[in-house]
Every structure is written in structure tokens, then in C-alpha cells.
Amino acid sequence: MSTEARLVDGREDGVVETTMLGQFAIVSVNNPPVNALGQSVRAALSTTLGELDADEAVAGIILTCAGRTFFAGADIAEFGLPALAPSLRDLLAQIENSAKPVLAAMHGTPLGGGLELAMACHLRLATLDTKMGLPEVKLGLIPGAGGTVRLPYLIGPEAALRMIVQGTTMDADEALEAGLIDGIVSSGAGFLSEAVTFIQTRLLAPTRIVPVRGRRQKIEQADRSAFETAAIALATRSKGSEAIAAAIGAVRNALFLSFEEALATERAAFDALVASEQSAAQRHIFFAERAARKAGSGVAPALRTEIRSVGVVGAGTMGGGIAMAFANAGFPVVLAEVNAEALERGHANIARNYATSVSRGSLSAEEAQRRLALIQGAPNLASLAHCDLIVEAVFEDMAIKKAVFAQLDGIARPDAILTTNTSYLDVNEIATATTRPANVLGLHFFSPANVMKLVEVVRADKTDPAILAAISELARRLDKVPVVVGVCHGFVGNRMLEARSAGMMDLLLEGATPEQVDRAFTDFGWPMGPFQMQDLAGLDISWRKRKSRGESLIIADDLCERGRLGQKTGKGYYRYEDGSRKPLSDDVVLDLIASASQARNIVRREISAEEIIERTHYPMINEGHRILGEAIVPRSSDIDIVWVYGYGFPQYKGGPMFWAERQGLDHVVARLEHWRAVTGQPAYLPSAELVQAAGLAEAERRPDKAVAQVHS
Ligand code: 3H9
User: Fold this and answer.
1) What are the boundaries of each domain within the chain?
2) What are the E-state strand segments in 460-608?
3) pLDDT greater than 80 at residue 290
4) Tell me, what DSSP letter sits at residue 210?
């Protein structure tokens, strides 16, 4: 075999390039950034493969990609548009039926349609650092190009079920062990010649190369009852997601139907999902997340600040979680806490959290040790002098925070970024405590900070845009989703949460029970209802806040005064049996609510789930439009990202703003006006911004009617 590469052709703007390595054709696709399998790639690839298949001089084909990854899937932006030939399924059938063996040589992140393409090839190799998977459920879809059939054939139905339903990836070692790939190749210069040697050896071997469709052994040997048990468990955990239900059905079909029948049912299920509301919502979230991450991407790289070392002030729950988030990403962290006892307690909590991860099997003991060692405790702020970034996470109190910032101003390097972890406070005011307001911003982490994906990055009036760019990049390293927000009370998330909560007690007074409210929320798709959530967090937190402001809240204050502080006292809006977190209805609470209604002469009535959702969610949408009007965020989709990643708004509804648009903003306005008329509460008054947006949406939908209205 000649190791001299010969360029055979280049086509379609250089998307596909073929070189010969001896008798083997190396077909390399280059469609940055992630080699998505859009129409131009499919067309060029199909033509090239057709020609190579007919070329007698070619003994086999090695399919690979240039750039950072093997195909990362179908082109998501094409979904919902008219289908253009060749389809991905046709291309895969062409590969599978090719007279020449086709080997997929993978690197990076072969995902979705990319991995499906590899499974239609006759052989698969991957570099050691490759991560492969079928994450379509995250887009409200199922694999639609044979993945739900070929993956079970390769790795067995139960393993395939878990991988598809959970959208997880496998690394090369696991994939080799599971049977998904045939070998591992080095990622350096030897990549292609190793692939050629591999295919050559397999062609010379006495055993035939059998395409995946002919390898039914794992299907026939599968334990069907274990499969059903796993399917039931996965279905229960993902209530409400159409894609997950369809994915379970599709993998089951691979087990019970012929290859062709299973492919046909997969195709029908995929086509229905692509047209579904849920998938439209999840695709919206995919692009919204990427748009939110781009904050500051226009800033010249020279201005960016590189962050290598981090300081955290305050070793409480938030400070500890933030320190862990940085250590998990490999940053050395100085955790400063002036109170020695609090520092010790904070460090012990961090160690305990890592130990829990080790005992659950989600982290190795060595890795936990390595991360823990990255967090060094310090009894004073002076130890933060060398840090590139400092996160203050002390008590949520303006005077205390300003005092810490004044101190940090005298200690930190002149170019250090100073950030405050605050949920509500005015970051502009905090910045005035320093002589370098351009270096100050807010970072609102969500608890537990080492787990939750969202960070609201609070841009103060004087924050340097180059610093925002650096923080967006940092968030990516922390595996967080950043959303840049302007300064206002509660920023995006907590400000809208207040609007959502405002009418909650009225619902109880008028006739709803905490269970009914919580059930309406969980049926909507929230992981937990608001009363369950308060019991979990502890009712005393907001009680203390109310008392400090001289405020009161009906029912909630009564519960706290009776020592019902939530799960920690075994009683709150619900009662809990010893050692259990299961909320149980409690007559004491129901009586307390009924007497509160009676004392206000309110005649209790039946409250529907629909009313509960409208009266809690529409005020929140109203507030979202005010937030947009004040330019706290530039895009409505940023608000959706805050709610999906910070508060558990169901992804498959696309976030509150997307969901409201799908309801029709004019409908939202009309229902708010209705509830305002019924209750007399100003909280339901539609904002000018919402009314305007509803008018614009209507004009877009029905231009004739809008024009007629303007003229009338
Ligand atoms: C599928 O395959 C269906 C089939 O089963 C059946 C068909 C019949 N398409 O995330 P990044 C863009 S469904 C179009 O910032 P990273 C992305 O928008 C698909 N565009 O990079 C961004 O654009 P921009 C199954 C895509 O390094 C840019 O690439 N596959 C696609 O952090 C960079 O993305 C998936 O679900 C795509 N498939 O992460 C994989 N993928 O710069 C989805 C990315 O304009 N993708 N873009 O904002 C990912 O998970 C990550 O992008 C990946 C890279 C891990 C690949």
C-alpha cells in the first residue's frame, strides 16, 4: 500500500474532499463548525460515495471529518423546513448497501445523525477522546435515521434504551467494550493510516464484515423482562415528555419487530415529533442557550481577561457551592472566611458533598480528593491578593457587601474581576464601594451552585464589556449557562418569581389547597410545586426577610409561628413522616386556610388547574415583558433560558416567553384582564409592554386585520 496521499477530487465548495491512500479512498467532510449533516453535505457525500462505489480501483472507503468533530448530527436548523433530497435516511441506506466496505473514523462528538451515519457504516473506529451519543430527546425528538434500531443491535436493547432516553454519551473505551465501535485509533498523524490498516486487516480476515442490520444476536439474547422493568422506570421519571415516550416505544420495536418494520415505525414517530410543539420548544431552547452564551463575543480578544485563579469570600452554603463549581472545573480556589468556625464548617460541608458523590458512584475517590485539594481555606481576605477573579458570597445585605468590596478594593490586584453573588441587590451601588467599578459585576448563582446550570451575569452600568466576554467564556468552562442581565431588583429570575407568587395565597383563600396548586404545577411539567418547594427550602427564610422589612404574609406567617418551618421540622404546608420527604396532606393546614378565608368573608369555591396556571403564570409573563421593555435582557429567549435552567420550567414548553407566545399574547392579555375584573387585584393589570407585544404578534399573524384596526 502506498502511504502517499493523492487528492482525487474536491466538490461543493470543498465540503467533501477525497484522497487515495493506496487502494483506499479517504473521504473527508469539512462543514464547520460541527459538520452538521445539512443538505449540501448529504448531496456532496452521496455523489462522492456513489462514484467511489462504482470505481473498481477502490477497495474500501474511510469516512472522516475535518475540524473539531465527526458529524455532530443532522442540521437542526433544517427541521421544520421542506425536506430536500437526499434525505439522511437515503444516504445511510446508500452507505449500508455500498459494495465497498465503509469505515467511519470518528473524533470529537459524533452525535445524533452523525452517530447514526457511523452505525450504517460497516466498521467504526474512534479516537480515545471521542464522545458519542444520541441526544435527540433533548431536542424533543428521537433518533430518526435508524439509531433506535441499530444501537440496540450493537449494544443490546437495555443499554441502548438508557443511552437514548437519557441522551447520554459514551467515551471510546466504553463504546468499544459495549460493541458500538470496533477499535480505537490514535488522534495524531497516524489516524488515517491506522484506519487503513484496520480496514485492510478486516478485509483479509476469514470472517465476513456484516452490516449492523444483519447482527441480531444481542436482540435475540436480550432479557425482555429486564428491558420492560427499565422502560417502566425511565418512563415514570420523565412524565410529560413525548420524545421519551416515543424513544421507549422505538427501542421496544427494535426488540420485537423486524429491522425494516422497526425502521419504518421509527421514521413515523420521528416525523410526528419534528412537527410537535414540544420539539419546537426544545429546539428553541437549544438555539436560545447558544445565543445567550454569546455575550461579549464581539469584543476584541486582546481585551479579554484570562482567569486562572479564583477567590471566594464566605464559606456558607452559596460560597461553598461556588468554590466546588470552580474546583470541579480545575480552578485553584482560595475560600476566605474571617470566622474560623464558619470556615471549618464550610470546608467540612464541601468534603461531605464530595464524599456523597463518591458514595453514589458519580465521582471517583481520587477525583474527589483532587478537587478538594484545589480548595484552600484562608482566614482573611488578604489571601485573595493574587486572584484573577473574586466572588463575594457573604450575607445578602447591602452594608455588609459594600464593606467587603471596600476591603477587596485595597487587596485585589488592579486588574482582578470583583463579583458579588447576589439574588436581589443593586450591583451599581456595590460597585461604588470600589475605585474600579469597570471591574465589578454580579454573578447570581443558583443553589446548589455546584449543580445548577444557570448563572445570571449582572452587568452593572460601568462594567467593562471585555470582562463580560471573559465571564461568558469562564461560564463555558464551568459547564454553566450564563445569561447577561441588567441591574434591577431580583434581576430576571427572582423578579418574575415574585410576580408568579404574588397571587398564590389568594388562590388558597379562594378555595384551592396546597396539593391542588402543586399538582397543577407538576401536571404543567414543573419538577415540583411551589408549596412543596417552600417546604423543602424552609419557610423561615422568607419569614425572616418579611419580618426585617416589617411585612407579613397571610397563612405563611401563621405556619411559621406554629413552628411549621417545612421539611426540617417535619411540618410546613404538608406533614412528613419520620425520615420521609413525601408530602402528606395535613388537616391542620387545611383548617388554618379555611379559617383565614372565613375571617375575610371569602366563600371558598372550586378552583381549576387552568385557573391556577393562569393566575400564577400570566403575571410572570407580564413581568417578563416589562423586563424586556426596560432592556434588562436583549432577547426574550434569554428569559426562557433563565427559567429553564434556574427554576425548572419544563424545557419541552420552551420557557415562559416562548410558551406564552404559543398561547397567543392577545389571549394572555385577555385572561389577565379577566382576572383583574374578577379579583380587583392590580397585579393582573396587563403591562403596556405586553399589550404592545400582543399587538405586534397579532399584526404579524394577521396583517390585514391589524391594518384595518389602525385605520378604524
Ligand atoms: C439529529 O441528528 C436527528 C437525526 O436523528 C435524524 C434525522 C432524520 N445542527 O454548541 P456549540 C451549531 S438531531 C445545526 O456552541 P460546542 C450551534 O448552533 C441532532 N447547528 O459548540 C453553534 O452555532 P453558532 C443531534 C449546530 O463546542 C455552533 O454549532 N445532534 C448543530 O460547545 C457551535 O455549537 C445534537 O443534538 C446541529 N446539529 O458543542 C448535537 N450542533 O455558533 C447538538 C451545533 O451559530 N450539538 N450547531 O451559535 C451539540 O451538542 C454541541 O453543539 C456540540 C458542540 C457538542 C456538537
Assistant:
1) 5-274, 306-490, 512-599
2) 481-486
3) yes
4) P
